[in-house]
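Shift notes (night). Ran DUF488 domain-containing protein while the centrifuge was going.
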Amino acid sequence: MTKEIVANIYTIGFTKKSAQTFFNFIKLSNVATVLDVRLNNISQLAGFAKKDDLQFFLKELCNTNYMHLPELAPTKEILNPYQKGDISWLAYEDKFLNLMAQRNVEKSISSKILENSCLLCSEHEPHFCHRRLVVDYLNEHSNLKLNVRHLY
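Came back to this:
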């Protein structure tokens, strides 16, 4: 099977970034749509990245669309034990990748949504964040070949 190429996909975390830095990354990268892959996108801790505010700022400052994709977020049952240190990153990764497989996300996410989009989560860097795992999973289990660039 030949892989379809989706030219660019980005990922970004909003923590450890000012609003200016965050929105400049999005604007300078010409992101078409920010795909919010957070479990909780309305937390007070999100600051400028709260769902309604973020949607407004993205459109006004960057001419970028916003879409929440909770099917690409971990469940509380997976995330909470990892955040508390009760399970390792490897155990979290295994549980999350199995969740992606159970949800068959490769069948529900179209290349048109992903093309020139940016996966958003809270983690500053992608190394220990599920947004990287989403890209890895889709590259392995779909006909997509995502060329990823992490913005941080």
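The first strand starts at residue 4 and ends at 13. The longest helix spans residues 89-103.
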